[in-house]
Amino acid sequence: MARKQFFVSPDGGNWKVQSEGVVLSRHSLKSAAIRAAVDAAHAWKGDAQVMVQREDGTFQIEWTYGHDPYPPKG
């Protein structure tokens, strides 16, 4: 089963948390959006991933929750 992905990304001067194309919440602070995404990932009843995007569109960091095999495949 694939991980449920939660994205933190810029949103016109604010920050949004979305999953599967649906905006779950909006925040004025990036740190608040990250906290909301991490909370949502912890609440998910399965494997989850949080990906944080910078304002320039590149990804800053990602975290995985649940089963994360080591070493990773590929």
Structure, described:
This protein has about 70 residues and is of the alpha+beta class. The protein has one helix at about 30-45; strands spanning about 5-10, 15-20, 20-25, 50-55, 60-65. Strands 3-2-1-4-5 form a 5-stranded mixed β-sheet, with helices on one face. A hairpin with a 5-residue loop joins strand 4 (about 50-55) and strand 5 (about 60-65).
Shape, please? Answer: globular
The major pleated sheet works out as: 5 strands, mixed
Round the Cα radius of gyration to an integer and report it: 12 Å
Question: What would you call the quaternary organization?
Answer: single chain
Query: How many β-strand runs?
Result: 5
Q: What order do the helices and strands follow?
A: EEEHEE
Spans where pLDDT lies below 50 across 5 or more residues: none
Helix coverage percent of residues?
Answer: 10-25%
Overall pLDDT confidence? 92
Strand line-up across the major sheet = 3-2-1-4-5
**Helical segment count:** 1
Fraction of residues in β-strands: 35-45%
How many distinct folded domains? 1
Taking the alpha carbons of the first and last residues, their distance comes to 17 Å
Structural class of the helices, strands and pairings? alpha+beta
